[in-house]
Amino acid sequence: MTSAAVPEHPWLLPGALTAPTARVRRTPRDWFVDSLCFLAAVGWAVVAWGDSLSAEPALALNVGPSWLNEVDLLASLVLCGALWVRRRWPVGLALASLPLALFSVGSGVALLIVLFTVTLHRPFPVAAGMFGAHLLATPIHLRLRPEPAMSLWLIVGWTLLFLGAVLAWGMFVRARRQLVVSLRERAHRAEAEQQLRVTQARQLERTRIAREMHDVLAHRISLLSLHAGALEFRPDASPQEVARASGVIRDSAHAALRDLREVIGVLRAETGVAEGAEPERPQPTLVDVPTLIRESRAAGVRVSVVEEVADRAEVPPAVGRSAYRIVQEGLTNARKHAPGTVVDVRLAGGRGAGLTVEIRNPWPVGTAGQGAAGQGAAGPAAGSGAGIPGAGTGLVGVAERVGLAGGRLEHGRDAAGHFRLAAWLPWPA
């Protein structure tokens, strides 16, 4: 589990650009910027105050009553101090400072900073309204503080230029910050989606491993049950036969434990193959079907094989692996539900025509037969395979495997009274 990271700048928080009274902690960068703004505003106020005391009125920035200069200085210093709270109340500070635009010269820089803050943190209509109100105060300002060295139109032009530049700059910075916020949100969303895809892929892989475990262990354990049942029903068997059956049971148990250990190791591994662990064995394909048949025959199952595949090595690995698991599931079900019968296995197909896998065995006598889910009812208590429990998911897993491969599956009782499991798998040309 990961904790939410704190943004480098408070304005990167969602809604920080539009929240009217959002309280965020001021960062070192904000302290630096606010200090520069405060010093610039105070510096301009001091310069304007010193210029108002000039002995030559023609060289002064603005002329007016002497008492207005003291009021201007005091109001400018108050506004400079209020700049420290402009981030929290930009519109309120802009409205409160509007009377200063009527007469104050020393608060000019502080007023521009306040208007820039409004543009940065509020929508354009609000910012445009504030700029318009301060622009309308220009004629009154010129009447109270006339400028003898400049014409009216020149003063209005410079005022429009400064206000327009501040408005444009604030809109640009706001748009850039919104773009950064949008990109960061997209990055977080993409990261979350990637984690979701990884989780889904891991879940699908674990489902695949569980399906493989079912197929492998069901085959191994059914062989164990078959040989153990043979020893149970043949207590008078010769020592050689008992030793041979015991050896097969031991080998099958070791193989089942090895397969289970490999599957558990893969499930425990979070990423990749653990250091020092053996690599995963190659998955069986159609080439390994004869070995599967020999194991079943060694366990006493009578298997008849008809193969009409030109070259098993040419079958794609995915198709061959699915065919192997289908044959394995068919033989396992036959040992469980129809022990002692002959199992017919047929493999046919070629490039472009697809691969057909068919397993057929007689329907168990005196039972309801094998169920559609592959569990079915156990056959008569003849042989050692009777009574082997089934999970009921064998053919469900086969159907899922065939569906993922883009093939077709048929299973059930045919016209001859046999249980038939037939699958067609695509084999590209």
From TrEMBL:
Membrane-spanning intervals of the chain: 31-47, 67-85, 92-118, 124-144, 151-172
EC number: 2.7.13.3
Annotated keywords: ATP-binding, Kinase, Membrane, Nucleotide-binding, Phosphoprotein, Transferase, Transmembrane, Transmembrane helix, Two-component regulatory system
Gene3D superfamilies to which the protein is assigned, alphabetical: 1.20.5.1930, Histidine kinase-like ATPase, C-terminal domain
Recorded catalytic activity of this chain's protein: ATP + protein L-histidine = ADP + protein N-phospho-L-histidine
Cross-referenced SUPFAM superfamilies: ATPase domain of HSP90 chaperone/DNA topoisomerase II/histidine kinase
Molecular-function GO term, any one: protein dimerization activity
Span of the signal peptide: none
Segments forming domain Signal transduction histidine kinase subgroup 3 dimerisation and phosphoacceptor: 205-270
Any one of the GO CC terms: membrane
Enzyme class, first EC level, given as a word: transferase
CDD domains: HATPase_UhpB-NarQ-NarX-like
A Pfam family of this chain: HisKA_3
Protein name: histidine kinase
Species this chain originates from: Salinispora arenicola
